[in-house]
Amino acid sequence: MGATRAPGASGWHAASDAAVKVLVIDDQPMLRDLLAEFLELLGHEADLAADGPEGLARFDPSVHQVVLTDFLMPGMTGLQVAEAIQARGCTTPIVMISGFATPDDERRAGEAGLRFVCKPITSAQFKATMAEVVEHASGARAADPPGAVVASAA
Q: What confidence tens digit (pLDDT) does each residue in 51-61 have?
C-alpha cells in the first residue's frame, strides 16, 4: 500500500537547495523503505508505491518532481511505467534502478530518456544521482542530455 513520508532531520545534507517530492515505485518493501529513508536524509519527500499500477495511479506531475522505480517488478516493469508516464506527455525525470538488467535493458532505458542505476548502489552514488536529477528537473543542467545513463560500478 502507498504511503507518503516527509523529510526528517539528519546530518546528511541535500546536495541541492531544491527539495522535491519523489514517487518511489518498488515491489520490495525493504528496498522501498530504504530508498525513502535515503531521500528523506537528502531533504526530499518520498511517496511510496508497491508496484507499477499503484505507482501510475499515484503519479501526479504537479506533485512529483522525480520518479524512482525498480526495473524488474511483477506485472509491470519500470520501463513500462516510464512509457506510461511519458505517454501522458509528462517530462518528469525518471530514475530506474536494477540489479538484474542486461546491457540491452540499459540501452533501452537510455533511449527512453531515463537515468539508469545499477545495484548495488552506495549512498554516495545515490546522493550524486539524485543531485543530478534534481538539478536537471529544475532546469539548472540544460547541458545534460536527456538520455544520459548513470550507472554505478558493481
A: 999 999 999 99
